[in-house]
Amino acid sequence: xxxxxxxxxxxxxxxxxxxxxxxxxxxxxxxxxxxxxxxxxxxxxxxxxxxxxxxxxxxxxxxxxxxxxxxxxxxxxxxxxxxxxxxxxxxxxxxxxxxxxxxxxxxxxxxxxxxxxxxxxxxxxxxxxxxxxxxxxxxxxxxxxxxxxxxxxxxxxxxxxxxxxxxxxxxxxxxxxxxxxxxxxxxxxxxxxxxxxxxxxxxxxxxxxxxxxxxxxxxxxxxxxxxxxxxxxxxxxxxxxxxxxxxxxxxxxxxxxxxxxxxxxxxxxxxxxxxxxxxxxxxxxxxxxxxxxxxxxxxxxxxxxxxxxxxxxxxxxxxxxxxxxxxxxxxxxxxxxxxxxxxxxxxxxxxxxxxxxxxxxxxx
Length: 364
Fold this sequence. Notes:
The chain is of the alpha/beta class and about 375 residues long. It has helices spanning about 5-15, 30-40, 55-65, 70-80, 85-90, 105-115, 120-130, 160-170, 190-195, 205-215, 220-225, 250-260, 275-285, 295-300, 320-340, 345-364; strands at about 20-25, 45-50, 135-140, 145-150, 155-160, 175-180, 200, 230-235, 265-270, 305-310, 310-315, 315-320. It has a domain at about 145-180. Helix content is about 45%, strand content about 15%. The strands form three sheets. The protein has a seven-stranded parallel β-sheet with strand order 3-2-1-7-8-9-10, sandwiched between helices. Strands 5-4-6 form a three-stranded antiparallel β-sheet, with helices on one face.
């Protein structure tokens, strides 16, 4: 004990845990962007990621090698990596020509590890070690999950990548999505993380093809409803062509409720920042518009609204300002969770110190 540092002593006594336990659930660009901000405030960070993707290079590997799609997993691993920038560039590199044209090196790397390790989850853990990531990245299931959508006219679409395409072709709204096998078993580690979380974050990301597929996996929704964690929904900045054109904030949340019985969202984080006319015009060509906040409905749903300027622009595309979004999330967790628990006082001051330091950095 004499050789232990003060921090080690706090760990051993349970006073300090490395920060609040945060579970994020989703997939696609939205989740990986958010993780870049969250990792600055806690080491207890878990990303539970959909494996319904069947398009692009991930779909090719899924079809040819019989493995789960690695693309969303790869993006989350890279977002949480603590390695040299060249390693991130390597993992995101796409071959331009030949038979490997369009394929990601990172996807191939996971495919090789999958073959060596004999299981997809073990391959992800080994890649996590290589990239020295903060936290964990977990596939929501290890089963060969396929996503389907039923449109309002009864048409059934098979495959995650085909849903937005066919929705636009038919111009029929999505009535519901479902998975086969319907009884896909959740990764047990994912269930454990949900039950022990301080906060569970849904979004941002594609509603029907990134967020909800996770909630359709057996036991995931049940675990979320049982968990004492704060449930936070991060709204998209814009509606999405092929999925949510015309949806308000309440429409998004009600759709989650319809697909995941028993879940109740406590907080919704929404954007109130100004989006330039140029970008509004650009997105309007896809019939997309800012997600409208229906205040009365949200109030009746007993959801607390947190409005912030979350707008960031990257290469003429709207993105969440992940630095500010992460600040907002951890300020909320600090005040509503940690500050109210005397046993978590060290975590409270730890996060508070991180927030002050990061705000100073962001202002530079």
